[in-house]
Design brief:
The chain is of the alpha+beta class. It contains five helices and two strands. Strand 1 and strand 2 form a beta hairpin. About 7% of the residues have low confidence.
Amino acid sequence: MGAPVTLLLQTEDRYGRIVAEVIGEINFGLALVEDGMAFAYRKSLGQCDAREYLDAEFRASRRRYGVWRVPGGITRPWDFRRGRSAGRSARSTESIPGGRTYRCGEIGSFARAQELLRQGHTYLDGDGNGEACESLR
């Protein structure tokens, strides 16, 4: 018999589904994000250690693991569904942290651009190589 698994209930989504962290010998969701097999879904990070998930996603993108191997990246599932179901652009500000978009020219520093990328502003990484606003180097 395998190691016990614990579900840490976090919230319920708008469809009544339970959102939980699956913890065994490791945190399975975090491991999937770290390996580039899943995205950190920002709307469900409220009860979790959001920084841990966002940093794991950032490391996966920098190392080009999993979904991050695709040149230019892939459309995140929630952006795909929103664009398809509502007829809106996948670049809707609803999926952008804080609803604010930035341009590289207004950010001011390469370090700040990397911080914004870790927070989920993936549009700042135009070539999908895991670095935002490379012109600011």
